[in-house]
Amino acid sequence: MRRKDRKVEDKKTIISILDTCKTASIAMIDQNTPYVLPLSYGYEQKDDSFILYFHCAKEGRKIDILKSNNKVSFTIFHEGEAELSEIPCNSGYYYSSIVGDGVAEFVENTADKRHALNKIFIQQFGKDITFSDAQANSVCIFKIIVKNYTGKQKVKIIH
């Protein structure tokens, strides 16, 4: 990381970023072509890392890609307010982000799918919902087992 002054290593800050964001952009490789798309997510902490959960239709391009190559990268970020400088090149945004990589795995067990949907719903709406087996089995669920991640942020300093 070039800007070491913006690196986030504190677990509480990482969790705060995960808690405040709603969308993760997932990067995959479709043969030799990059493919990135934003998806709603849920997460849970596992030891020193995280598992990210996603739901989608049972078929489609991303499913085909993940079945052929389950290595992924992701970005989760919160874009804050603009910082306008008198010197235009010094302008920018306050932000918080997590960038990482891992492996995607499909969740097949109905109870595990219900658990994942609950995590997604908590993340998106702040409500703890119990999903039925029929609801869980009507969608595809996959998770990213995060292998590496880095937090970064530029915070506004109030004087």
Task: Report what the structure shows.
- This protein is an alpha+beta fold and 159 residues long.
- The protein has a single domain (4-150), classed as Electron Transport, Fmn-binding Protein, Chain A (Pnp Oxidase, Chain A, Roll), CATH 2.30.110.10.
- The protein is built from four helices and eight strands.
- Strands 1, 2, 3, 4, 5, 6, 7 and 8 form an eight-stranded antiparallel β-sheet that branches.
- A hairpin with a 2-residue loop joins strand 4 and strand 5 (49-56).
- The model has no long low-confidence stretch (mean pLDDT 91).
The end-to-end span amounts to: 27 Å
The gross shape turns out to be: globular
The SSE string, one letter per element, is EHEEEEHEEHHE
Task: Specify the structural class.
Answer: alpha+beta
Task: Count structural domains.
Answer: 1
Helicity level = 10-25%
| Shape-level CATH architecture | Roll
Task: Describe what is shown at a glance.
By secondary structure, this protein is α+β, with helices and mostly antiparallel strands. The chain has one domain (4-150): Electron Transport, Fmn-binding Protein, Chain A (Pnp Oxidase, Chain A), CATH 2.30.110.
Q: What descriptors fit this protein?
A:
159 residues; Pnp Oxidase, Chain A; 47% strand; single chain; alpha+beta
List strands and helices in order, with pairings.
Elements: E1 7-8, H1 11-20, E2 23-30, E3 33-40, E4 42-46, E5 49-56, H2 61-68, E6 71-83, E7 92-107, H3 110-125, H4 133-137, E8 140-154
Antiparallel strand pairs: 1-8, 2-3, 2-6, 4-5, 5-8, 6-7, 7-8
